[in-house]
Design a protein that fits this description.
With about 260 residues, the chain is an alpha/beta fold. It contains 6 helices and 10 strands, in the order βαββαβααββαββββα. The protein has a single domain, classed as 3-Layer(aba) Sandwich (Rossmann fold). This is ATP-binding protein.
């Protein structure tokens, strides 16, 4: 049971778990549709313009059934996309309420219903994340007022309830915020480019545990994949060179 050697960093994108979030219609689903052998677990309409493998998910039981079939491995999919994880969480809440025959999660007493929902939600996401496939969770974004010791400021975050959002952001390897970057053109007029932001900021949630990505990258999957793979290849070459170089021994200092 206990390991005999250290695990190596995951080299491929379809070994990782990512949260992709941003405003509606910015291109999140389109970006995810280019992931390798992607299967969409579609919890809401919105894929009509895309040619993708889609499993409609209308309730939590549907999601559990899809997860069971994915875990069996009798398919060619390499990336699982939950679009959106926000709706999946609401389905989980409905499932728990129905199971305990209550109208609302607060009916089970202080905090108990919410804890049951979050536990079930985390259980299923963890199971998916441990499977040998990439996992991408899509969410929308909204602005929240954040209280700090220095005052109040606005921060853009995924549209999940606080505890569910913390579960998701703690689980994933990548938090990718889809946004519009504004520059001024030669004529003085603003030019907008759709981008992904990958590094933490006081103004939005983002993060990259791999350390491979630039702070901002165009919202274009081939460009993203090229940057991700180039950095991985460069790290591998650097490690190989370091391993092959002979160790140097410092000469002992002599006293004058």
């Amino acid at each position: 049971m206990l390991p005999k050697s250290k695990t190596k960093p995951k080299a491929h994108l379809n070994d990782l778990t990512a949260l992709v979030y941003g405003p509606s219609k910015i291109g999140k689903s389109t970006w995810c549709s280019h992931a390798e052998n992607a299967l969409f677990l579609a919890t809401e309409p919105g894929l009509n313009a895309l040619e993708v493998f889609e499993a409609p998910i209308t309730c939590w039981d549907d999601l559990l059934q899809a997860c069971a079939e994915i875990a069996e491995g009798k398919h060619d999919f390499k990336t699982i996309v939950i679009d959106t994880v926000d709706n999946a969480y609401r389905m989980c809440a409905d499932y728990v309420c129905k199971k305990f025959k209550i109208e609302h999660e607060s009916d089970l007493g202080y905090g108990k219903g919410y804890a049951l929902i979050n536990n079930e939600f985390q259980r299923v996401l963890n199971k998916l994340a441990f499977l040998p496939y990439g996992l991408i969770l899509i969410s929308h974004s909204h602005e929240r007022d954040i209280e700090t010791r220095t005052g109040k400021h606005t921060r853009i975050v995924p549209t999940l309830p606080d505890k569910a959002r913390k579960l998701v952001t703690g689980l994933v390897d990548l938090i990718l915020f889809c946004d519009l970057d504004m520059k001024t053109g030669d004529d003085g007029k603003p030019i907008y480019q759709r981008v992904m932001r990958t590094k933490p900021s006081p103004n939005y949630d983002a993060g990259d545990r791999t350390g491979r990505l630039p702070e901002m990258i165009p919202l274009d999957f081939p460009t993203f994949l090229k940057a991700f793979n180039q950095t991985a290849a460069g790290s591998a070459v650097s490690a190989a060179r370091t391993k092959s170089e002979p160790a140097t021994t410092a000469k002992p200092q002599t006293k004058e």
